[in-house]
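step: validate -> pass
step: tokenize input -> pass
step: predict -> running
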Amino acid sequence: MKIAIVRGKHLNKFEMQLYEPLAKTHQLVGFGSLRPFQDQFAFPVVKLPSPMDLPNFPYKMPLLNRLMIDGQYLFGLEARLRGFDIAHSAETYLHFTQQCLNAKKRGWVKKVVVTVFENIPFANEGIWGRQKFKQRAIKEVDHFIAISQRSKEALILEGADPKKISIINQYIDTAAFRPSSKLKVVSSKLNILFVGRLELYKGVYEVIFAFRKLLADPDLKGCDLALTMIGDGSEKAKLLELERRMRIEERVTHKTVPYDRMPAEYQKAAIFVAPSRATRHWQEQFSTVLLEAQASGLPIITTWSGAIPENIGEAGALVQPADFSALAVGLKKFILDPALRQKFGRKSRQRAVAVFDISIGSRKLAKVYEKTLYSHS
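step: predict -> pass
step: emit ->
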């Protein structure tokens, strides 16, 4: 099969690792903007001009989205899809999904598959034209891939035919992300790791407040605790200020790390924390970092938010979101009990290998492509 993976600016290494195994048996081509997040994969990439490549300026995305309905437009995409069996896009409201449907209407591509991450029904409809974008996609897309049960339920509520929806979660390369090969000796030094956008909805304030609470806990007086936060975002300056005010800045390390070096960062950690919280317009769609932490064999403490319970199963501890005290209690249990950390670390690794290994997802994806291409609907 000849398959176009259309992601525009958002073409990235993490998501594409699911597709790379298929490049051995099918002809895959990625379609990105001129400056996508990443562009080196096991298959070639076609780069097309996009408004997303404009330099950042104040209110860039609100302006683009209001002028164009959605700024994720790839100039010339329709013609470049000529001769493909399947165009695989993402989200019903993105502009390049409409372009894939345009190409299908002209007979240039046979079928359109769309992966849906969104898990809030009727979300992203506040901008003019997006409701029509979504309604058209619900009607004309040949098959949907929902990354979670919640995403599938949202699609059904929006009118999608359940028979046209398959659930294929996100997956992880368990050979790249794996537990440290070094013998871990139980010690008082513990590194707590957070990875993600430094934004309110990722629970970043709960992380630093819980950490400060742990440092002041008399039961943990003999523990040498450290916190590593990997990522960037709009809340970073405020976080740094609060860390100084709470006098914990010497215990907290902020950094950004290239994706290919992330496995080593997980191997340095003793506990992983991901306290996402829901907002009116967003809840955790699946959480790739939880997959990375599981594959790395880390004990995990996270929250009841969006699709996280589907992701984590029984391989991690769940607490209520937006509650730094509950987060501190959960972390304290792991800190005081090395055997508990080892138990949950084993559960994490076992779940990653058995449920979320890339090879499993790639086989499911290939079956969806074959079913979609050769169906007569």
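step: describe -> The chain has two domains: 2-171+357-373, 189-355.
step: cleanup -> pass
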